[in-house]
Amino acid sequence: MTDADFAWLLGKGPARDPGLAIAQGGIAPPEILAMLRGIIASLAAADHRSVAWLVSDAGIIVAMMSFTKSGADGRYELGYGVAPAYRGQGVMTRALASLLPLLASEGHHGLTVETSVDNPASQHVLERNGFVRTGARDDPEDGALITWAIDLKSKAKA
Questions:
Q1: pLDDT, tens only, 121-139
Q2: What pTM was computed for the model?
């Protein structure tokens, strides 16, 4: 996913592929997309590897995944979102399963994720993909969160 993709999602530019369409209702509110655009630009400037991905289903962009920050240990924190009309269909479980080996092959050693304690669907996505709970914390804006991590060394392609 590039800055041009963010511009397209925000209605400020064309799709890189005219055959693509955005899921009805979009993937995330414009203010979230704009915030992520800035974060991704900063992370991309510091790392030559990909830091954000679009997820499509039959030419419709139904989700996105991106790193949201880089930890002191070199692990990125991953965030993701699915268009409301596509939630509960296994989209993110499949997309994350496809992304993890790619990240491992690019030299990532692990990832972290935080989910709301009130988001069992996201918790199931992580569990199905091998993430383990590492703790919990309270965030002033987001409330009670569960922290997760995965070691990607075992997922690298031989």
A1: 999 999 999 999 999 999 9
A2: 0.89
